[in-house]
Amino acid sequence: MYCTIQSTLSLSTPPPSLRVTVSVLGIEGTECRLAELGRLADRTGGMVSSVSESDLESQLQKALQRQTVATHSSALLYLPTALCFQGEKEEGSKTLREVGNVSMETELTCCFRLKGEKEREALLSCGSVSVQLQLRYRVTDGRKLLRVITVERGVTDDSSMVLSSLSLSLLQVHCAQKSAALVVRGRYSQAQKETDEQRQLMERVLEHRRSQEEKETYCRWKKEMSPIYEHNVRKFQAIPDGGATLLYGLKNAHRKSSLP
Questions:
Q1: Element (H, E) at 248
Q2: What are the respective helix, strand and coil percentages of the chain, to the nearest 5?
Q3: What is the C-alpha end-to-end distance of the chain, expressed in Å?
Q4: Is there a smaller number of Cβ atoms within 10 Å at the N or the C end of the chain?
Q5: Dihedral of the alpha carbons of 9, 15, 20, 21, in degrees to the nearest 10
C-alpha cells in the first residue's frame, strides 16, 4: 500500500491539459492519505470522498455520473486599469486561471479592489466599468473553442445600494473555495483572516436586508464552515481523511452543491 501511494503521488500535480478525470475514494476507519492523493482528483475535476463500505457502491456510481463537459480549459479575466485582483498569482488588472477539466457545476470566483484613492474618483466620474472574460476550452468532440463575455456594471459609493445588490450565495461559495484552498496549502492564518472578513461582510448584508430566509441560510453555511476553523486553530500538519473530504468539497463548492 505504501509503495502504491508513493508512485501515485508523482501524479498529484498533473498539467491542466490532462483529459482524464480521477476521483479518489477512501474507506472510513482507514487512513488513505486523502489530503495528498486528493490533489490528483482536485486537479482533474474529480471528487474526493471518505465513505463507509455500505455506501461504496453509491459513491462509485456518483463518481461515474460526474460528466466532464470540457477539457484544457482556461479563464482570462480583464479588469479596468483602476482595479487589481487580490489573492491571485499576479495581482494586476488581468489574471489567468488554468482550469483543466470542468463540469456543469464548476464555478470560479475571484476578488478585486481599487488600486488607490485617485482611481476611486476616476471610476465614480465614469459611472460604470467594463469587465471581459475570455474562456478557452476543448469540447468532447475535440473542437477548440473561445468564448468572450463582456459585461458593464455601474459604479457607486452608496454602501446601502451595494449591500442590497450583493449575492449572499456567491459570497458563501467564494469564501468556502478560498478558505479551503488556503487550508489545503497550509496557510492557516490567512484562511482564518479570509473567512473572518467574508463573515463580517455577510453579516452586514443580513443586517441591512433583514431577511429571515437568508439568515437561516447563513446559519447553515456557518455550520458547514465550522470545521475549517477547527483546522485553523489547531494548525494540523497532517489533515485526516475526513477533513480532506470536507476541505476538497468546500474548495470546489458551487451554488448547486450541499453548501447553502
A1: helix 241-251
A2: 45, 20, 30
A3: 37
A4: N
A5: 70
Q: Count CA atoms within 13 Å of residue 15 on its CB side.
A: 4
Angle made by CA atoms 64, 147, 45, in degrees to the nearest 5 = 25
Q: Is 251 helix (H, G, I), strand (E, B) or coil?
A: helix
Grid cell 505504501 in the structure block, residue: 2
| DSSP string for 15-53 | -TT------EEEETTS---HHHHHHHHHHHT--EEEE-G
pLDDT (tens digit per residue) in 213-234: 999 989 988 888 877 665 544 5
Among 151, 108, 154, 112, smallest CA distance to 131 is for 151
90 and 50 Cβ atoms separated by less than 8 Å:
no
d(CA 41, CA 83): 34
Residue with cell 484544457: 72
Which residue is listed with cell 495581482? Answer: 91
- Taken in order 251, 257, 259, 260, the sign of the CA dihedral is positive
| Strand pairing class (48-51; 111-114) | unpaired
User: Per residue of the chain (260 residues), what is the pLDDT tens digit?
Assistant: 222 333 333 444 555 555 678 888 888 877 777 877 888 888 888 888 887 888 888 878 877 777 888 999 999 999 999 999 987 777 789 999 999 888 888 899 988 888 888 888 888 888 888 999 999 999 988 999 999 999 998 888 888 998 999 899 999 999 999 888 888 887 888 888 888 888 899 999 999 998 899 999 899 888 888 776 655 445 445 677 777 777 888 888 887 765 54
